[in-house]
Amino acid sequence: MPALPHWFAVAISIAAAASASAEPAFNAQAICRTAIAAITGRDLKLFQATNAPDGVVALTYARPFDNFVWAYHCRLEGSRVIWADEPGRWRQEANDDKIFFEIVGAGARLRIIKNPINGPATQELFEREKILDR
Asked: What are phi and psi of 116, to 5 degrees?
């Protein structure tokens, strides 16, 4: 059997790598839903997210016992989550707690890291199926 040309072997390996990672990483809506759920201590599945025209993710949460609707806004800056409640201000100042996210396990999990101004950092790990299963 003749050997494959070098360029052909490279093309096959690139195609194989692309198909292995064909499942997309978490999108901004999924990251924002997960981060706001972690920040507020509420059930992730109760949050609804939509993209606003300005690139911000708008989120709502209906409290189960009285259906009162809470609203939040979120945007991502690198690995940082910037958020605001409605009405409220963006949590982006030097004295605000900082929230970060990390995609781990080749996209199998999402880690939310809460780094408060006063106190130790904490983190929560969310399984992909829990985030995307609604």
From this structure: -75, 155
